[in-house]
Design a protein that fits this description.
The chain has 2 domains: 10-64, Orthogonal Bundle (DNA polymerase, domain 1); 70-371, TIM Barrel, CATH 3.20.20. The strands form 2 sheets. A 10-stranded mixed sheet has the order 1-2-3-4-7-8-9-10-11-12. The chain has a two-stranded antiparallel sheet with strand order 5-6. It contains 12 helices and 12 strands. With 372 residues, it is an alpha/beta fold. Helix 1 (15-23) crosses helix 2 (30-41), helix 6 (218-224) packs parallel to helix 9 and helix 10 (289-302) runs parallel beside helix 11. The protein binds S-adenosyl-L-homocysteine (SAH) and iron/sulfur cluster (SF4). The site of S-adenosyl-L-homocysteine has 16 residues, from strand 8 and strand 10. S-adenosyl-L-homocysteine binds next to strand 8 and strand 10.
């Protein structure tokens, strides 16, 4: 389904595009900067709060732009420091944004490392067999404004929790584009959104602290390498041979490893950054000794970091997470060869934090209630 909002989201405008739109209304150039200050520095939620703008300009903005492209349905704090925001869009679609807090030794929750995980599409077209986001296919792309507004919602939630100190986005350590959707399948919107997130007139968040994860759309990886943004790249590999990867990820048929791996190398060389290879461990599917050896060789060749992720059970799928012993055995094959490798401790299992699972449940409940 295609959704055309009645008005574009103001959060999807850049300094240039807003300046041009205002110039067409015979407004001076400094107004754009003023408006962006209200959005990103003062984070107001309504037009009326933009008190240094003339009344007529506020009325014109209200008529032509949407200032609240997402609405918070609820947030759930899980016992293991994962927080999940369920957001509703203008067409009632649901997306999710996750805050992951990893406590540091000897300090409280406030001093923990904080990561925000954002979504880029409603559903996903890639159909990876382990992933709840792709079960119902792609519903639609998110607009740049809907992507940026997820971060505004996170800041507001943090503001409410820490009433004395206003939570700045800079207090978060990382942003990962690993929520629902394939970001490079919505290329223009994600690049525009991340430009806004990074810009000094926008959210001012360092590009090197942003990681974009992709299932491997080769031409788009090459295009991303030419963008001025210094993002980090993560590749959802999940299979170290075509035979195994194809079984798990249909995208491998279009872009097999012989095409994907050189594109990843090109990105890593051009940007001078280590790329991360994500590998979900699924029992008997991709957790064999042979796969570990092949993954080791790929990682050494690309000089990449490997992130092993124990499979999170998805309702309706038969696959299982390997035992911890098996996970560690797999890890050892890589670590023993000097590969930089981590084994993720699962976060948010109790609130269905795996990609797309919460949204799916809410949509099913809606359907059951006949309101979908
Ligand atoms: N579409 C992009 C963006 C990330 S979504 C991509 O595929 O790279 C996919 C991420 O969500 C995976 O890499 C994985 O980290 C996580 N994920 C999805 N389903 C999962 C599952 N069943 N178990 C564990 N992690 C899962
Ligand atoms: Fe889409 Fe990523 Fe899920 Fe694959 S893993 S279906 S690309 S969201």
């Amino acid at each position: 389904m295609r959704f055309t909002p009645a008005k574009p989201a103001l959060y999807g405008e850049t300094l240039d595009s807003l300046t041009a739109a205002l110039a067409a209304q015979s407004q001076p150039a400094f107004r754009a900067k003023q408006i962006l200050d209200w959005l990103y520095k003062k984070r107001v939620a309504t037009w009326d709060e933009m008190t240094n703008l003339p009344r007529e300009l506020r009325a014109w903005l209200a008529e032509n732009y949407d200032v609240a492209p997402t609405a918070l349905v609820f947030d759930r704090q899980s016992t293991d420091e994962t927080d999940k925001l369920l957001l509703e869009l203008g067409d009632r679609s649901l997306i999710e944004t996750v805050i992951i807090r990893v406590p540091q030794f000897g300090v409280g929750l406030d001093e923990s490392r904080k990561t925000i995980c954002i979504s880029t599409q409603v559903g996903c077209a890639m159909g990876c067999k382990f992933c709840a986001s792709g079960l119902d296919g792609l519903k639609r792309n998110l607009s740049a404004g809907e992507i940026v507004h997820q971060l505004i919602q996170v800041c507001r939630l943090e503001d409410a929790r820490t009433p004395r100190a206003r939570a700045e986005l800079a207090s978060f350590d990382n942003i990962v584009v690993m929520g629902m959707g394939e970001p490079l399948h919505n290329y223009d919107a994600i690049v525009r959104a991340l430009t806004i997130v990074n810009a000094p007139w926008g959210l001012g968040f360092g590009a090197r602290r942003i990681t974009l994860s992709t299932s491997g759309l080769v031409p788009k990886i090459r295009q991303l390498a030419t963008e001025p943004l210094g993002l980090r790249l993560a590749i959802s590999l999940h299979g170290a041979t075509d035979a195994v990867r194809e079984q798990i990820m249909p995208v491998n048929k279009a872009w097999p490893l012989a095409e994907l791996l050189p594109a990843v190398k090109e990105f890593s060389d051009k940007k001078g950054r280590m790329v991360t290879l994500e590998f979900i461990l699924i029992e008997e599917i991709n957790d064999t000794f042979d796969q570990a050896e092949k993954l080791r060789d790929i990682a050494l060749d690309l000089h990449a970091h490997v992130n092993l992720i124990p499979y999170n059970t998805v309702e309706g799928l038969e696959w299982k997470r390997p035992s911890l012993t098996r996970q560690v055995k797999f890890l050892d094959v890589l670590a023993d060869a000097g590969v930089s490798v981590t084994l993720r401790r699962e976060k948010g299992h109790d609130i269905n934090a795996a990609c797309g699972q919460l949204r799916l449940k809410t949509e099913k409940t809606r359907e059951a209630a006949g309101s979908g």
